[in-house]
Amino acid sequence: MDSGLLRSEGGVVSHLPTNFVWPKEYLVDAQGELQVPLVDLDGFLRGEEEATQCAAKLIREACLNHGFFQVINHGLDSCLIRQAHHQIDTFFKLPIHRKLNVHKTPASMWGYSGAHAHRFSSKLPWKETLSFPYHDNTSEHVVTNYFKSTIGEDFEQAGVIFQKYCDGMKQLGLKLTELLAISLGVDRLHFRELFSDGCSIMRCNNYPSCQQPNLTLGTGPHCDPTSITILHQDLVGGLDVFSDNQWKTVPPRLDALVINIGDTFMALSNGKYKSCVHRAVVNKYKERKSLAFFLCPKEDKVLRAPDEVIEMDGTKQYPDFTWSDLLHFTQNHYRADQATLPNFFNWFLSSKTTH
C-alpha cells in the first residue's frame, strides 16, 4: 500500500477506500477558532528582560490551558521557509517509484510513508510524509547527506535548504526551552542541557485534496509524544485542537510558527503543562502542506520534572524515564493517541517489574 491510493492516474481518487474511513465520532466538525496567544519573540531574542517576562507569561497561560501558542519574529528567515516548502513540494510530486525508493521500513523512523500503511491497516490518515533525523553533534551535515545519499543527487540542494531549516529550528527550540523554564519558575537553562545534544525529528506532511473529506482525516486525534513541536503550515489550513470539549481550528499565518507541548514536556512539567489532543483535516479542493520539527531530548538522559516544580505541587506525578523508552513504546507497541502517556507509564512500570 502506498500513496498511489491517495491519487489516481487522472488526479484525485473519487471513491474513498474503506481503510481510510474513520468512525463518525472522530469526524465531528470544529466549532470556531482556538484562542491561541501570539507571542512576539523579538524582545526576548534581543535579551530584553521585560519582553522576556511578557512572553513567558503568555506561554504559561497557554500551556496551563491547552499547550498551543504561535510565535512571530522568531528569527527564521521567511525566504528559507518558502524554499523549504518549495523543495518538499517537488519531492511529493515525484513519481511514486522514486518516493518508494526511500520508503520507511518497519524498523526505521526515517523515510517516505504513504498513509503510514506500513504500520496500520485501518483508520489510515489521508496523507503522505517524509521523515528524517536532525542532530548537530558532529561536523557532518546530516540532513544534506540524507537527501543526497537517500533520495538522490538531484536533491542535494533540497538537503542544503533543509539542513539550514533544521539548524534554525533547533536553535529556536532551545530558546523556547528557556522561555518554558522561566514560565515554570526554574533556572532558564534547566531544560536546555537535556535537548542540546539530542536527535530531533523533521517531518514533512502532504495532505492531498480528497473528494470525500467528511469521511476521513489527514491525521487522527493524538498528542505528540515528543517534547516541543514547531510547525509551519501553509495557508490552506486544517489544524484542529480539542479544547473545552470541542474541536477548534488554528488559523494559519505565514509569518508565524505554531508551537505545542508534547507528552514528554508535559511529564517534564510534572503535568502542569498540557499536551493537547489535535488532528489534521483534509480539503476537498486543495492539497495542504506542513513542516513539523519535533525537538527531542537526548535518548539516554533521565527525564524528570525539576525539584522546585515537584516541591511546589507537593506530589511527583510521573516516574523517571528516558526518551528512548517512550520512543520505543510508540514505535513498537502503541499507536500514538490522546492516551499515550498514561498507557506508556503503565507499560513502563510493568516492564520494569517483570525484569
UniProtKB/TrEMBL annotation:
Its cofactor is L-ascorbate. The keyword Protein biosynthesis does not apply. It catalyses: gibberellin A12 + 2 2-oxoglutarate + 3 O2 + H(+) = gibberellin A9 + 2 succinate + 3 CO2 + 2 H2O. Residues 195-297 form the Fe2OG dioxygenase domain. Keywords: Iron, Metal-binding, Oxidoreductase. GO terms for molecular function: gibberellin 20-oxidase activity; metal ion binding. Gene3D superfamilies: B-lactam Antibiotic, Isopenicillin N Synthase, Chain. Pathway: Plant hormone biosynthesis; gibberellin biosynthesis; Hormone biosynthesis. One of its GO terms (biological process) is gibberellin biosynthetic process. It comes from the Eukaryota. Belongs to the iron/ascorbate-dependent oxidoreductase family. GA20OX subfamily. This is Fe2OG dioxygenase domain-containing protein. It comes from Vigna mungo (Black gram).
